[in-house]
Specification:
Elements lengths: L14 E7 L2 E3 L2 H8 L7 E4 L5 E10 L5 E9 L6 E3 L2 H7 L5 E2 L8 E6 L4 E11 L2 E4 L1 H7 L6 E6 L5 E10 L6 E5 H6 L7 E5 L1
Parallel strand pairs: 1-13, 2-5, 6-9, 7-9, 10-12
Antiparallel strand pairs: 1-14, 2-6, 3-4, 4-5, 4-8, 8-9, 10-13, 11-12, 11-14
Bound molecules: zinc ion.
The site of zinc ion has 3 residues, from strand 10.
Amino acid sequence: MDSLKEENKSVSGYEVPIGVSARHVHLTQADVETLFGKGYTLTKKKELMGGQFASNELVTIVGLKLRAIENVRILGPVRKASQVEISATDAVKLGVKAPLRESGDLKGSAPIALVGPCGAIYLKEGCIVAKRHIHMSPTDATRAGVKNGDVVSVKVDNERATIFNNVVIRVDPSFTLEMHIDTDEANAAKITTGMTAELIR
Ligand SMILES: [Zn+2]
């Protein structure tokens, strides 16, 4: 097997719960204060995996063609860079050319404006469509036969029986096992949060 070093070693049949990610925003503390007022801190609505939380705070996002989407939720805690994650359908609606990226890979991504109750900000870059990915702890990764940065394929055996390729593996001790897809992917494949995907070779 020496000639097949690049062979996919993932464990076929390894099951991963699916979480559907709605459009959302990550903000720096400075941007939180511009949008919500000086000294403001995000308030927790619901705990998410990896120490993240859905906040109670919402913003309106506006593309350069002045088309907007209201009530976009902010995820905490605050980050080093502000980022807007939308679906491909949202990108069409907003008239924004958002590239398909991994979270945090923002260089050269699309510009977007955000409006809050106390102010507005303009991001020269930061709007992306998130690449589908699987969060895993190191233990899960060992069991699944994968490592951070691997790209795998999964199948979902529901009514529409969809195979997803180009799924990025992300490993961190703080992560709970979960595959994240966006609302476009979920709706097209008739998937809801809590359904299961299986690794395939
Ligand atoms: Zn995720």
